[in-house]
């Protein structure tokens, strides 16, 4: 009878140690994620990201419009349209970055929750 009692105590002890280790891991993971957020959103880094978002979106729009114009023979029109579309996409992306919405869906959410597929949504 004492053998089962000892097994029960050792299992309780193991359970307590596992819970403590999981709590420490959650705390460390939370600290690391907070550190990453602070590093990612520093002033200069955020400024460079915003500038790159704008320039790349406009360049992609202009390039796409240029090649479509060349292919379809509509010389300046599609390039003008796609430059404006690229600028609009750039402004939307900059807004999302500035407001912190850039990781609320898609890859950002998946990375935040790991590869287990869990989400905050009910």
3D structure, described in words:
- With 122 residues, the chain is mostly helical.
- It has two domains: 1-40; 43-122, no CATH class.
- It contains four helices and no strands.
- The protein has helices at residues 2-40, 43-72, 77-99, 107-112.
- Helix 2 (43-72) packs antiparallel against helix 3.
- The protein is elongated.
- The two termini are 46 Å apart.
Short description:
By secondary structure, the protein is an all-alpha fold.
Q: What distinguishing features does this structure have?
A:
single chain, 122 residues, mainly alpha, 2 domains, 4 helices, 80% helix, transmembrane helix
Mean pLDDT: 78
Shape: elongated
Count of helices?
4
Spatial extent as radius of gyration: 26 Å
Largest sheet: none
Number of domains: 2
List the helices and strands and how they pair.
Layout: H1 2-40, H2 43-72, H3 77-99, H4 107-112
